[in-house]
Design goal:
Elements (H helix, E strand, L loop, with lengths): L2 H4 L6 E2 L12 H13 L4 E3 L8 H10 L8 E6 L1 E7 L20 E5 L3 H15 L6 E5 L3 H4 L3 H10 L1 H11 L4 E6 L3 H7 L8 E5 L8 H13 L3 E5 L12 E2 L2 E2 L2 H16 L4 H10 L4 E5 L5 H12 L4 H9 L13
Parallel strand pairs: 1-2, 2-3, 3-6, 6-7, 7-8, 8-9, 9-12
Antiparallel strand pairs: 4-5, 10-11
Helix pairs in contact: 2-3, 2-12, 4-7, 11-12
Length: 336
């Protein structure tokens, strides 16, 4: 099914921070944030077993289970199975994402993209989320940032395992849609070249933002649009640096990124534009993108996101970004 028709709004909620990403968040703060998202009309929620070893799913399920299941769209991911045995969360090997969820649950996570693990992962997620069905399932992180030189082998195990299982579940009507959820464009380009199975959408985090969009713009987004594969933009604020934070790509932002953000901020101030509005609306302006799912751990951030979606951004601001070479010359921008 087209994810474009499945999602109720272009603004969703990415719940990675609810897995205690970067810091330990009290349960009540996590719950209040999800409730704030609901109260601001957000009805698409994305999570994953990886986020705090199931913690994000549990917290999200606690709140969403109080609402009627037909009222919201839910996605989670496969590729990692959460076990009952425990490990040291600070010692996990997470490729370029080291230390990301060291405040999460200590349950051991196993990377496994096989058919059996995919079905088990879905079953476990349903329990943690306290629901009877998932709308969208993403195959998580089959890319270089987690697996380095071994990523193609991991991708192949997912292609013959998870991809086929999810394709079958969609055909049976058990799920509405499936795709890949990654932080790199290469696995998505590879998937678009496959004859089968065919995904419905991709969740691409961090690669179609104000700060980083050149590569996705060249081939991926035009090819996805041509094949009617929708793009959900994860991390529209580039891990927070575009929303007043200090992280880029889940780590402390390097000097050149900080300098680029300062230039964008200067132009935003000159034209009276909120930087969140600029970031969010840029990510959604491409015809292939159907939604953006910023994350948050504070209710006030949700209100900011909702306001950013509808804020009026003058055409002169986008023209100034182009002139200063801060966005690609052929990047689509919102029309007023």
């Amino acid at each position: 099914m087209s994810v474009r028709h499945l999602l109720p709004s272009p603004l969703g909620f990415g719940t990675a921070p609810l897995g205690n990403m970067f810091r330990a968040i009290p349960d009540n703060e996590a719950a209040t944030t999800v409730e704030a998202a609901w109260n601001h009309g957000i009805r698409y929620f994305d999570t994953a077993p990886f986020y705090g070893a199931g913690l994000s799913e549990i917290r999200l399920g606690d709140v969403l289970s109080q609402h009627h299941r037909d009222e919201y769209v839910l996605s989670t991911k496969v590729g990692r199975v959460v076990l009952d045995e425990v490990e040291d969360p600070t010692a996990r090997q997470l490729g370029e994402k080291g230390g990301l969820f060291e405040h999460g649950r200590p349950n051991r996570m196993v990377n496994d993209y096989s058919a059996d693990a995919t079905l088990r992962s879905i079953e476990d997620s349903l329990k943690r989320l306290r629901t009877d069905r998932l709308d969208i399932v993403w195959v998580h992180d089959v890319a270089q940032d987690f697996y380095g030189d071994e990523w193609l082998g991991v991708y192949e195990s997912a292609r013959t395992g998870a991809f086929r299982v999810l394709d079958g579940l969609r055909e049976e009507g058990v799920i509405q849609a499936w795709g890949l959820g990654v932080n790199r464009v290469e696995p998505l380009e590879l998937t678009l070249d496959l004859d089968e199975p065919k995904p419905d959408a991709f969740l691409l985090a961090g690669r179609y933002t104000l700060l980083d969009h050149d590569r996705a713009l060249q081939r991926l987004l035009p090819a996805a649009a041509a094949q009617n594969v929708d793009i959900v933009v994860g991390g529209p604020y580039s891990s927070g640096i575009l929303a007043g934070g200090q992280h880029f790509e889940y780590q402390k932002a390097p000097a050149e990124i900080v300098a680029k953000v300062e230039l964008i901020k200067e132009l935003a101030q000159r034209y009276g534009v909120g930087i969140k509005a600029a970031a969010l609306q840029f990510s959604l302006a491409h015809p292939a993108t159907v939604a953006a799912i910023p994350g948050a751990t504070r209710p006030s951030r949700i209100a900011e996101d909702a306001a950013a979606l509808t804020e009026s951004v003058p055409a002169a601001f986008w023209a100034a970004l182009r002139e200063e070479k801060l966005i690609a010359p052929d990047a689509p921008v919102p029309t007023v």
